[in-house]
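In this supplementary section we document a worked example of the pipeline. Step one takes a protein sequence of length 274 as its only input; no multiple sequence alignment statistics are reported here. Step two produces a three-dimensional model, which step three serialises into structure tokens for compact storage. The input and output of this example are shown verbatim.
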Amino acid sequence: MIKKCLFPAAGYGTRFLPATKAMPKEMLPILTKPLIQYGVEEAMDAGCDIMAIITGRGKRAITDHFDISYELEQQIQGSPKENLLKDIRKVMDKCTFTYTRQNEMKGLGDAIYKGNVLVGFQSPFAVILADDLCVNPNGDGILKQMVDLYAKYKCSIVAIMEVPECDISKYGIIEGKEIENGVYMVSNMVEKPETKNAPSNLAVIGRYILTPDIFNLIKDTKPGKNGEIQITDALCEQAKKGMVLAYKFKGRRFDCGSVDGFVEATNYFYKNLK
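The serialised model returned by step three reads:
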């Protein structure tokens, strides 16, 4: 039902400088696999086979990663090391990759809007932020859970989690009414509010399913917090016109856009999934 997944990947990754001066933050590895490959594999498990990636200057490593490397493959052909490429070969065999650029950093809303040339205006699509690394070792991946929920409600869905008060100002925060266990009908969304002004402690993380009318709403959205076009503002307008759900997912999320979260994820994967 959801065949296309959009990956906004044009950001500078300034929290990881100087490592990200020449390497995209989405290519930072957790063990031996880059962050964006974990995201692509999660999308595949949810039924997506078209991966639409929003890149920028200095992001060529992403396109190279999802392409054939003739010299490397020839060098290791027939050796035990050839087996190390089986996961990325599976991804490349099963998925189509398309790319466009976000020339200026104008916010997540703008990055998603740039993706309309890749995902079109006719069908719902998923969005994954690769530096939010999500796992659910005891069941379906987070995006698969959201796709199943979409099959029931046919509307835009955001993934949410509870965050401590000290972290509320780092996220988009939802206000809503719980309509079933872990599922909220959104009435308002606020981008990075002060704790005292936050409507809840339910924070949006980097997993979305969006209906295509979101593009017209983003187009009409004025710059908000930090002068950027915020996807939360567009979703808030969508909630007024129809229905937007927030889903408290089953699993665990690592904020790999921060050094602490990146180290935490590395330790987790080393202990559990090596």
